[in-house]
Amino acid sequence: LVDGHHVVHAYDVVGHSLDSAVVVSKYGRVCLSTAQVRTTSLKTLPDYLEHGLDVVFVGINPGAYSAEVGHYFATPQNRFWPAVNGSRLFTRPLNASTDHLALAQRVGFTDVVKRPSNSASKLRVGDCRTGAPVLKEKLMEYRPLIVCFQGVTAYKNYLRHAEEIEARPELGLQPESIGESAVFVVPNPSPANASY
User: Fold this and answer.
1) Whose CB has fewer CB within 10 Å in the chain, the N or C terminal residue?
2) Antiparallel, parallel or unpaired: β 20-25 and 13-16
3) How far apart are CA 69 and CA 177, in angstroms?
4) What's the pLDDT tens digit per position in 31-59?
């Protein structure tokens, strides 16, 4: 099984249900459907998670191009890296090819759904129903100071499927927390959301 660009062996599956499995590689935890675990050609992005993080950025799911090249926000038109570097969150600028270095600066990455697609509109309800509770488990385990969802759609799907809350969240600091982690929602940096 390949998670992004890292090989994950079947014996690395550490938890599973009828719908999903949690696979661990030395690069992080990845939630995959049971069917995906049986498939040897799935490519997705690894989670960059560890204890002691200040911020974890959460996307709805990896874009197909990002999954293919193995890096977060890798589409050249994606506005994530220019925006985050402009905010001076990192002590030195990073880009898609250096995304793994974010952990050293106490910043992590993951997704609500680990199945890549060309558009979030290609996701099925079952993808979010399976992925959101696994995301909640990861966030409760790693307890970052801030969970920053990339887009209202990502957070809305998390709320619906992990917290059983029907809401119309807006951008900014959220009234709900995830365990001890504050929740913030920023605009989705995808080129498809370029009007924002």
Assistant:
1) C
2) antiparallel
3) 33
4) 554 444 443 355 899 999 999 999 999 99
